[in-house]
Design goal:
The chain has 15 helices and 7 strands. Helices cover about 50% and strands about 15% of the residues. The chain is globular and about 65 Å long. A hairpin with a 4-residue loop joins strand 1 and strand 2. The chain folds into 2 domains: about 150 residues, Cytochrome Bc1 Complex, Chain A, domain 1 (2-Layer Sandwich), CATH 3.30.830; about 180 residues, Cytochrome Bc1 Complex, Chain A, domain 1 (2-Layer Sandwich), CATH 3.30.830. The model has no long low-confidence stretch (mean pLDDT about 95). The strands form 2 sheets. The chain has a 5-stranded mixed β-sheet, with helices on both faces. A two-stranded antiparallel sheet has the order 1-2. It has about 350 residues and is α+β, with helices and mostly antiparallel strands. The protein starts with 12 loop residues before the first helix and ends in a 5-residue tail after the last strand.
Length: about 350
């Protein structure tokens, strides 16, 4: 909605301006923040900064545009549900964190979107979209002194309240593990396990990161070698780690034959227990580190990627910690990876299974 117009820019004018300069705009939301960006030639730095400042606090939030955008969001919800892998992660986060906000779908629910009014949206926007709550990141062939001057001129004259962030309750203790079966069309099944893990500010974040690479990233990872190559229990399997300001989640997801659901779950837990008992080899640690370094470098090789990474760091932890990320990752020992597995991958895990409708197993 922010790029849909301001009092001085009618609907369509912002897209026309950005595209006319050879650029593009984008926006997305995560568990912790909302991100807006403009990709423009460096010569148009002033225009980009002034445009972001304008939409940041002056968006019209036109009711007609809101109705149209609701349909876009509802369609995105349908697309997410149609994508089994994305939908499985969404349901896993719900299973491991609900009723905390981290357990809610980022897009909301169809009922909430349909009921959203312009008045409610505007009240939220004017309360929280103020300069004190914003982080501006500029990446590219620009003069830093000029960029700071333009940013102060554009954002410094904006009004805004005291900059309170939305109140987020602390993450409650884990209660009884949630195990959910979801009937889905199709003949294949999906299995997901999730454990709560370290938040971005926790010292364990680096060890947990490498732990998930050892477990389930690529063909040489433990889960792939044992469950896919040796036991033939799954068609595909991987581990992931999402770290946020107040918590995190380690996930293991697999696509498999429905007849293998129980055996695959037991095998995953056996791999985890084996890592907890015997640790990881130096070769595994080195392979995980190389993969993690390559992934990180790939993520920040573009101006957009670097801006997103630095903006997220400044919003949810610190830029200083982000700049030290690779150095701290390299210092993680095999023993620390084993300790992270013991600390976080316990018996209290959430499980979500997508099973064929009609019980076709």
């Amino acid at each position: 909605m922010l790029f849909k117009g301001t009092p001085t820019r009618p609907p369509g004018a912002i897209d026309h301006l950005v595209e006319g300069l050879g650029g593009r705009s984008n926006a997305f939301t995560t568990q912790d923040f909302t991100h807006f960006d403009l990709l423009l030639p460096a010569a148009h730095l002033r225009t980009g900064i002034e445009l972001l400042a304008d939409v940041a606090v002056n968006a019209r939030l036109d009711p007609a545009e809101l109705d149209a955008e609701k349909q876009v969001v509802l369609e995105e919800m349908r697309l997410t549900e149609d994508d089994s892998e994305r939908y499985l992660l969404r349901r896993l986060y719900e299973a491991v964190y609900a009723p905390h906000p981290y357990g809610r779908p980022i897009l909301g629910t169809p009922a909430l979107i349909r009921a959203l009014t312009r008045e409610r949206l505007h009240a939220y926007y004017t309360r929280y979209y103020v300069p004190r709550n914003m982080v501006l990141v500029i990446v590219g062939a620009v003069d830093p002194t000029e960029a700071r001057h333009l940013a102060r001129a554009a954002f410094g004259r904006l009004g805004g309240g005291e900059g309170r962030r939305p109140s987020v309750p602390p993450v409650p203790p884990t209660d009884t593990p949630r195990h959910v079966d979801v009937p889905r069309p199709g003949r294949q099944a999906y299995l997901g396990l999730a454990w709560r893990a370290a938040a971005t500010s926790h010292a364990d974040v680096y060890a947990v990161d490498l732990l998930t690479y050892v477990l389930g990233d690529g063909p040489t990872s433990r889960l792939n070698r044992i469950l896919r190559e040796r036991e033939r229990l799954v068609y595909a399997i991987e581990a992931g780690y999402g770290a946020w300001a107040l918590g995190g989640a380690v996930t293991v997801t697999a696509r498999l034959d429905p007849a293998n659901l129980e055996r695959a779950e037991r095998a995953i837990l056996e791999v985890v227990r084996g890592l907890q008992a015997d640790g990881v080899t130096e070769a595994e640690r080195t392979r995980a580190l190389v993969t993690a370094e390559a992934t990180y470098v790939f993520d920040i090789e573009t101006a957009e990627g670097l801006a997103k990474t630095y903006g997220q760091a400044e919003t949810t932890w610190t830029l200083e910690d982000e700049l030290q990320y690779l150095a701290r990752l390299r210092r993680v020992t095999a023993g620390e990876i084993q300790a992270a597995a013991r600390r976080y991958l316990g018996e209290r895990y959430a499980r979500v299974r997508f099973v064929p409708e009609g019980g076709g197993r």
